[in-house]
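FAQ

Q: What does a record look like?
A: Structure on top, sequence underneath. For example:
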C-alpha cells in the first residue's frame, strides 16, 4: 500500500526544537516533490516548505523566520522538517504530502497534492 507516515511530533517548551519525519511506504519518494503543511486549531491549512526530487526547496511564510528547514535522505526514503525556536503559535497538526501524478513534479501547492500522511501533533504550551 502506498502511504506517507509522519512521526516526531510531541510537546516541547517554547524555544525548543523538534525534527519531524515523513517516511514513504510502497514507493520511493526521491522521484517526487514532498511538502510539509500544518493546521493550527481553528485555522486554515498553511504551507511550510517543499523539496523537489532534485533537492530544490520552496518555502512560504515569512513568519517562520528561517526557523524551519526541510531536507531529504533518499537512502532512508524519508523527508525531514527541522523546527527550531518553537513558539506557542506553532502548535498544530503537521502533515507531509506528495503529488504522485507528477513524476519529478515542482508544484508546492496543497491543492496539487494527492497523497497525504495522517498528521503528527506538535504542541508548544504557553
Amino acid at each position: 500500500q502506498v502511504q506517507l507516515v509522519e512521526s516526531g511530533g510531541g510537546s516541547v517548551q517554547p524555544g525548543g526544537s523538534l525534527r519531524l519525519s515523513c517516511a514513504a511506504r510502497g514507493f520511493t519518494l526521491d522521484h517526487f516533490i514532498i511538502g510539509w503543511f500544518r493546521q493550527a486549531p481553528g485555522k486554515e491549512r498553511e504551507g511550510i516548505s517543499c523539496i523537489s526530487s532534485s533537492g530544490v526547496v520552496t518555502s512560504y511564510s515569512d513568519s517562520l523566520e528561517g526557523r524551519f528547514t526541510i531536507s531529504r535522505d533518499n537512502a532512508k526514503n524519508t523527508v525531514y522538517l527541522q523546527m527550531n525556536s518553537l513558539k506557542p503559535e506553532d502548535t498544530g497538526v503537521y502533515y507531509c504530502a506528495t503529488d504522485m501524478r507528477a513524476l519529478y513534479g515542482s508544484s508546492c501547492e496543497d491543492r496539487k497534492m494527492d497523497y497525504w500522511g495522517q498528521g503528527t501533533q506538535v504542541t508548544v504550551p504557553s
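Q: Is there anything notable about this one?
A: The chain is about 0% helix and 45% strand.
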